[in-house]
Amino acid sequence: xxxxxxxxxxxxxxxxxxxxxxxxxxxxxxxxxxxxxxxxxxxxxxxxxxxxxxxxxxxxxxxxxxxxxxxxxxxxxxxxxxxxxxxxxxxxxxxxxxxxxxxxxxxxxxxxxxxxxxxxxxxxxxxxxxxxxxxxxxxxxxxxxxxxxxxxxxxxxxxxxxxxxxxxxxxxxxxxxxxxxxxxxxxxxxxxxxxxxxxxxxxxxxxxxxxxxxxxxxxxxxxxxxxxxxxxxxxxxxxxxxxxxxxxxxxxxxxxxxxxxxxxxxxxxxxxxxxxxxxxxxxxxxxxxxxxxxxxxxxxxxxxxxxxxxxxxxxxxxxxxxxxxxxxxxxxxxxxxxxxxxxxxxxxxxxxxxxxxxxxxxxxxxxxxxxxxxxxxxxxxxxxxxxxxxxxxxxxxxxxxxxxxxxxxxx
Length: 411
Known about the structure:
disordered N terminus, 2 domains, globular, disordered C terminus, Growth Hormone, Chain: A, mainly alpha
């Protein structure tokens, strides 16, 4: 009977954390898709809008460092339970902010809570995986993708009918705050092992010394994947319109193809991971994404370019779920099975990968100004092949951790 209750708890926890991922994706997309309305409502310049985006990103990355300490002290469940319903409430504040300074403060608060939630929900998904002894990370990221698509569609619809951002965000909060609270009730109760946590996440000294070579390789792989995603999101339409003479409407289909091809494999990714090793999946991801980018660069027509961006989506679809899972398990095992150890590693990994979001658009733009956008996209091909080449790090990390634990057990 106890086993049945444990199994039931794990099933509920799996779907609860999957729901949290979906809520997060929906909120972030709802926030992003109303950016033109935000610029118009506050009469912002392009520079002011860029500064707001930077404040959101910097606050998020800084808060990710705090998340590991919070998880070490309280466990992941209460952090997710508090952060998830707080996010839609802060979104209302963004809708109501009357001028630039107030908006800057709200963007920083929203970014900070998003950063904390991003780390804690990934850590919680790792904890459920470890307890259930089955993969769920890909499904969680698939839920995020579905939520983002729904959020983008709802946001576009709200803008189309003239609904204000405040009204739009208030309606979302009415639905999503109770949904987040209900999901929080069914999250798995995890215990933060405070003893290992101190060595993995406690203080500035631990933060400085926690950057292992393995983590740096994982982080570099994640950064390249995120940079590729940003390149498609920000530049695919520009490339097809300006370099392949596609109409604006046709150019917009590039990201649609990418999003659909990225989301679909994630829905079955956990089943794939049950049959295929993480190393093989990462190799497949890197090679497929690189081939897709080559198709884009060499495409003579817009439709072939759209197909290429879709192939890139297939390639990167499972890379981040696999990497988040590998990093979380690696951190937990190094800390003797502690969720706090997983949180420390995930927060560091997130810091590196999110640099792709913060720095990627600007770097791509600068390079494109010098050598053109097609050549700039072509430069990403060897780096994506690099993701495939570095895939064996997953197996090496597992073996080193197992060897270290065996030595500790003997001692």
